Amino acid sequence: MRRRGMQRRRRFSSAAVAVLGAALILTACGGEDTVEDAVPITEPIGKDTKTPDAPVFEKTEEVVNDPRQESGADGEIDFAAQYEIRPDIVGWIYVPGTDIDCPVYAKDTGEGAYLTDGSTAEMMDFSCVLTAPAAAEGDPFATLYNFADPSFFEGNGKIVYYQPYGTMIYAVMAAYEADAGSLYISLADGSEEEKQAFLDDMRAPGIGKNSQGELLAGLTTQNFFLTLSAKTAETSEKQFIVTGMLASVE
Fold first, then answer.
1. Which residue, of 52, 122, 174, 238, is most buried by count of CB atoms within 10 Å of its CB?
2. Which pLDDT belongs to residue 221?
3. Looking at residue 42, what is its pLDDT?
4. Could you give phi then psi for residue 210, rounded to 5 degrees?
């Protein structure tokens, strides 16, 4: 029997969720997984509270199955077990339809995914970025390129980021190849011009670009985004990116 560690989870204020027009259902972005009444997040999560304390786990005497076999597909991550393996774990990324189902670390550890630039584990910035050490053939992040297929893009519209304090669900907005470079934009330090340029890049048409045009048209610099990036080689001057808009927090 798998042990489920007790997690001290911070509940996000309902005031952090504001409706942008009609309620957004993730199936409108494609994908068979439905999130009822999902709406875009347009205010800083927990802006009126302190940054959550480090997670505190309560040990039990129950037997733990191999936590390396963990998966986000069942909607739950055993962070207590994961913490015993790697205390530096900050989250778990799961992208249905791909092989991306792995732990997230604050920096490049040579395995799993990691936060780039100044992205925070709590995902409290305008645009946070996750990538992997390499996305060569056979590595999970190589399957990020699945989103280059228009039919796959239309049928797979969700990115799930688990953390000890809650689960953040993103609706996929765009997928395309771009010049390698930083995609991170701070909430506090990012300028309106930088944020608007980020939105314009997603909206701009391009060869091989897939996007949710109608939904993108309604987004503003008050929304929040997560971008996954992959390169076929460390030396590549191009990166493939998939960007999702924060739609709900559970």
1. 174
2. 93
3. 52
4. -115, 135
Rounded CA gap, 158 and 97, in Å? 9
Q: Which residues pair with 105 in a beta bridge?
A: 89, 114
Task: Give 176's strand partners.
Answer: 241
For residue 43, tell me if it sits in a domain: yes
Instruction: Note whether residue 1 is domain-resident.
Output: no
pTM above 0.85, yes or no: no
222 CB-near residues (< 8 Å, 6+ apart)? 18, 42, 43
pLDDT in tens, 226-245: 999 887 666 677 889 999 99
Supply the pLDDT for residue 110.
76
Region of 234 on the Ramachandran plot (φ > 0 left; ψ -120 to 50 alpha; else beta):
alpha
Domain extent at residue 119: 6-249
> What CATH number should be reported for the domain holding residue 221?
2.40.260.10
The answer to whether residues 90 and 115 touch, using CB atoms and an 8 Å cutoff, is yes
pLDDT tens digits for range 18-59 = 333 333 434 444 544 444 444 555 554 444 444 444 444 444
Could you tell me which of 149, 138, 36, 38 has the C-alpha nearest to residue 97? 149
Please name the helix (run of DSSP H) or strand (run of DSSP E) that holds residue 200, with its range, or none: helix 192-203
Token pair for residue 190?
């990012």
CB 221 within 8 A of CB 195: yes
Q: What is the pLDDT of residue 179?
A: 81
Q: Quote the tokens at residue 122.
A: 């709590």
Q: Are 175 and 209 in contact (CB under 8 A)?
A: yes
Q: Report the number of distinct structural domains present in the chain.
A: 1
Would residue 191 count as lying in a domain?
Answer: yes
Q: Is residue 95 part of a domain?
A: yes
